[in-house]
Structure formats: C-alpha cells, structure tokens
Write a structure and sequence with these properties.
Oligomer: single chain
Order of helices and strands: HHEEHHHH
Shape: elongated
Distance between the termini: 59 Å
Low-confidence stretches: none
Strand order of the largest sheet: 1-2
Number of helices: 6
Largest sheet: 2 strands, antiparallel
Mean pLDDT: 94
Helix content: 55-70%
Strand content: under 5%
Number of strands: 2
C-alpha cells in the first residue's frame, strides 16, 4: 500500500512515516517507480510506534521496544525494565510539576492582583533560592 493509505491505517501522518523511515524504524519496500510500498508488517510496526510514542517513549526507547517486539527470542523482563525506567522518569516529572504548581499557587495567593506596583509574584521570583 502507498504512503497515504499506510498513514491513514496507522493513525500517523505521511510526514511521520517518512521520519520513522529516516530513522530506520520502518523500512518499506520500494516499487519499480520508487514509491514506498508498505506491508501489513510495516503497518503493525507503525501502530506499535504510534502507541509507544503516545505513552511517552522517546524515539530511541521506541527503537529498543521495537527490537524486542520483532525478536522472537525476546525476554519480557527487558520490556518490563524499559517500562519501569519510564515510570520512574514520569514519577520524577510529576514531582517536579507538583512543586511548580505549589510554588505558583503560593505566589498567586500572596499577590493582590490590583493596580498597585507592589507585586508579591515578582518579588517572590526575584528572591534568592534558599539552597
């Protein structure tokens, strides 16, 4: 199938398909006229990539997962390790976001938000970090 059909069936854009091809994540065959010819196996890989990216995996992490997916001698513990590492990373990001939210809430609650030049937000942001 051509790139438009593959894009539609995989839920990705044609631009994304070309990008993943440039990274050798998917390598479709070429027709005599030079057009890409995607197989059902290519579509499965593209759907896999789309779902992995949607869950937050970076391209290189997707490459590792895709290699495991394609390897019949794979070990599930390797996939689990990658997912657990991603979970730890996301937990750290959530912690950072919670700290940011708490800081912004505190700054906002101390600001009058009126026409006065006094601003607790700007004063708070200009303070030295208590490290």
């Amino acid at each position: 199938m051509n790139i438009s059909q593959a894009a539609r069936d995989s839920g990705l854009t044609a631009k994304a398909l070309r990008y993943y091809e440039s990274l050798d994540l998917v390598v479709p065959a070429r027709c005599a006229n030079g057009y890409r010819d995607y197989t059902e196996r290519d579509l499965q890989a593209l759907r896999f990539i789309r779902r992995a990216r949607a869950t937050g995996f970076a391209v290189e992490e997707v490459r590792e997962l895709l290699e495991l997916y394609r390897d019949p001698a794979r070990r599930s513990r390797d996939a689990k390790q990658l997912v657990e590492e991603k979970l730890q990373h996301i937990e750290a990001q959530l912690h950072t976001l919670e700290q940011m939210r708490d800081t912004l809430q505190a700054l906002s609650s101390h600001c009058a938000g009126d026409d006065s030049p006094q601003c607790a937000i700007l004063d708070g942001l200009s303070r030295r970090d208590p490290r």
